[in-house]
Amino acid sequence: MTENTYKSSQRKGQSGVFRLVNRFLRIDSPLNEVIHVYFLPQILFLSFLCLLYIGNRHYAERKIRAINRLENEVEDLRADYTTLKADFMYESKRSEVAKRVAVLGLKESKESPILVKKVEY
Questions:
Q1: CA-angle at 108, arms to 105 and 111, nearest 5°
Q2: Are 97 and 103 in contact (CB under 8 A)?
Q3: In a 10 Å sphere around its CB, with 0-12 CB exposed, 13-18 middle and 19+ buried, how is residue 18 labelled?
Q4: DSSP string, 91-107
Q5: Cβ of 104: how many Cβ atoms within 10 Å?
Q6: Digit-coded pLDDT (tens) for 29-76
Q7: What is the spatial distance between Cα 58 and Cα 47, in angstroms, rounded to a whole number?
Q8: Residues 6+ apart with CB under 8 A from 21
Q9: The dihedral of CA 73, 75, 77, 80: what is its sign?
Q10: pTM of the entire structure?
């Protein structure tokens, strides 16, 4: 009978980045079959997805803070607008205008205005 022998599984079609990693790190063949080296492409892909997820989360939180800040600013501006509009309406009343022009020596007329009609010939 023949004797059972162990065959090391080496991938012959290894190319690209992982071939360079194996060449420069000089990983021994038993260590080459360790899970973290064997599944390196999947681990790198998952790491990339995690980085994208974390970056997207930071971007979304930054946008939410900016939206909240702008909403507060809009509320402040709306309150200022309402206050200024009320002040303007009060200051433009006839009695308030009369008080302010009295300082200049102008008085309110007691007579009603005369209506001038255009006569056609």
A1: 135
A2: no
A3: middle
A4: HTSHHHHHHHHHTTT--
A5: 6
A6: 665 566 566 777 888 899 999 999 999 999 999 999 999 999 999 999
A7: 17
A8: 27, 40
A9: negative
A10: 0.51
